[in-house]
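Now for one specimen:
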Amino acid sequence: MVEHERLFKQVLPVLNSKLEEIKLNGYEGIAIEDLWNFCLQKKWRKKNLAEIRIHEVVSTIFSLRASEIVSHLQIQQFQSTNWFSELNQDELKELLNPAKHNNSDTENN
């Protein structure tokens, strides 16, 4: 379910138009929900959406640049990725305490 669904439905044609423009510029893989969430999280995070006027919403959507949306999506992806999920406990300990493991390696030689 989309946050602020009533407003989302009102501006859906605008979001579709902006998404088409973005795709014409060679940016694939962006969904309407990505545009909407970007606006909610970055453009309107300090605003009360119950009080925002429809023309402000439309203006904001039309002023979006593909590069800022892509950057936002990349940052979100980096923040949500668990870089160490494939490591076992010993490998994690070695990463966190490399000096201990390096000393034991030199002692063995």
